[in-house]
Amino acid sequence: QEMRATVRVSDGPHNTTATIHITVRDVNDNLPKIILPNNIVEIPENATVGSQVITVGANDNDVTQNKNFLFYLSPTPSGHFAINSSTGELTVLQPFNRQEQTNYNVTISVSDNSAPPKMSSAILQVIITDINVAPKFVKALYTFNVRETADIGFVMGRVRAVDPDLGPSGEVRYSLQHGNDAGKFDIDPVSGEISLREKLDFENGGPSYSLIVKASDNYFEPKSTTARVTVTVVDVVEAPQWPNTLPVVVLTSGQRCSALQLAARPQNLLQLTSSSAATGVVYSLLNYADSFSVNATSGILQPKGQLATGVYHLQLRACSTADTTVCADTMLTVEVAASDVIAFCPPFYTVFVDESVDTGHVIMDLNSTKGDSDIRYSLTDNSDHAAFAVDRLTGVITVVGKLDRETTALYTLTVMAVDGLTQESSTA
């Protein structure tokens, strides 16, 4: 470091100045310091001669002594290690025999390049570990049965692998390698317990899953092994599923629909049939038995004779044919008017479509009791209509997006028709 001072001399009438330059020279008054990434390291007993153990660093607070450090080892009886005097890389000099000695305290020293040099030392503990072997599963195949009604977090079973190595090399960690693309399962990395991350569905998700579980040890160069896990989804009788929203059925007192057919989806079938009504469902009417009747098999709802004007809130029940005690209820509103009103007849439609259809494919052409003149059609906000559209003038429903049965197997659309002259509306 350099400093400068100006000196001024005066005898009264005369004066003069001089500049003094002062250079402060660094004195080697600081010890170099050894930098160890870790004070304890582990290496396997089969480490070959020349294998790297660790690289040591150093620093020095003195300005001129921060370069060209000299690293060396204090003599040890074993002589199993060597250090590069310039880079500080500690390497294996002789093979190990863990049965004779399991650890070494290596004294590493560093000196700076001053004269005379200053030095410091640190002790590195080197632990010799067993030769790492891969963990081994107790079984090569695990089979778990899980009811489809099992809750999220349900533990379906546990896999187990053992590792004879000592210390971290014998600590086993588990992970799911393959078969969990949908993210339905979790595995505890320590215990090996496999649990549900999402609900299972026998009908939509499939009856079984095949997983590959990996067990790895905690070695710095880990070894691993795998096992197969088969998860069988046990089908449970579930209540049929009504559409999320049922339309309001509008009739006149003298009007009869040709097929006022209800449709509740049986959840215990892998796919819906193309019959006029979904098989696997038993229908019943819980009230207004004097005014309406429902066919238990087909789901066709019919009025009994002339209906009085007014609003009827029909309580409907759909039960599984596999277990008629497993049911789902819903309410259907039927409005009977004295005069001619806009309505869909029938108000329920079931359409089957292939997932491979192109955009623009026509699903169906809806018509109200007043035809298409002055009628405007639209999909209500509560419809699953991202993949569909309805022509506002003609009532033609088309596909506007890609369909994927594996992602969505059932859509419920609610279409509203509004009479532009009377502003009357109806839904289907």
Tell me what you see in this structure.
By secondary structure, the chain is mainly β. Helices cover 1% and strands 41% of the residues. It has one helix at 202-205, and strands at 2-10, 15-23, 33-35, 40-44, 52-55, 57-59, 70-73, 81-83, 89-92, 103-111, 119-129, 136-137, 141-147, 155-158, 161-162, 172-178, 185-187, 193-196, 208-217, 224-234, 249-252, 281-285, 292-294, 301-303, 310-320, 327-337, 362-365, 375-379, 388-390, 396-399, 415-419, 425-427. The strands form 11 sheets. Strands 4-11-10-7 form a 4-stranded mixed sheet, with no helix packed on it. Strands 13-20-19-16 form a 4-stranded mixed sheet, with no helix packed on it. It has a 4-stranded mixed sheet with strand order 21-26-25-22, with no helix packed on it. Residues 264-278 have low confidence and may be disordered.
Ordered list of secondary-structure elements with their pairings:
Blueprint: E1 2-10, E2 15-23, E3 33-35, E4 40-44, E5 52-55, E6 57-59, E7 70-73, E8 81-83, E9 89-92, E10 103-111, E11 119-129, E12 136-137, E13 141-147, E14 155-158, E15 161-162, E16 172-178, E17 185-187, E18 193-196, H1 202-205, E19 208-217, E20 224-234, E21 249-252, E22 281-285, E23 292-294, E24 301-303, E25 310-320, E26 327-337, E27 362-365, E28 375-379, E29 388-390, E30 396-399, E31 415-419, E32 425-427
Parallel strand pairs: 4-11, 13-20, 21-26
Antiparallel strand pairs: 1-2, 3-6, 5-9, 7-10, 8-9, 10-11, 12-15, 14-18, 16-19, 17-18, 19-20, 22-25, 23-24, 25-26, 27-30, 28-31, 29-30, 31-32
